[in-house]
Input
Amino acid sequence: RYEQASFVTPVIIASGKAMENNDLWRQMIADSSGLRVIFDKDTEEATIRGAAQLVAFALQATKISSSSSPDVQTFILSSQEEEIHPFKTSEPRLAATAFYREKALAQNAFISAIAPLFSITSLSGERIDQLSNNKNK
Output
């Protein structure tokens, strides 16, 4: 739950047999995201659960932004704390998280460097991306 006076560290709630049985997979997700991964033994259909929470957040944000008091900066996702029953937990390792972050930055730099190779220029001098379907033009 998010409130103005307090901050709760985000976690990843995982479900499914792959997350339950594969400790290495859970650890890789924890390391690459920098977040604790919790396998909740009572959670089923975590994807739809997350989607529902995002919808609730969006509806609450819309309600707050359209209120008569524009200085409201509190987003409350639910009126109650959600009860979690951790079955298995993977904590991010600082060195591994730093490694993943460094590699992600290197990948972004590489993509930016090769991006010009994947565009062409029309006869009028307008840049046309080969990878797009040009529907927006």
Observations:
- Confidence is low (pLDDT under 50) at residues 1-5, 70-80.
- The CA atoms of residues 128 and 134 lie 8 Å apart.
- Residues 94-114 form the longest helix (21 residues).
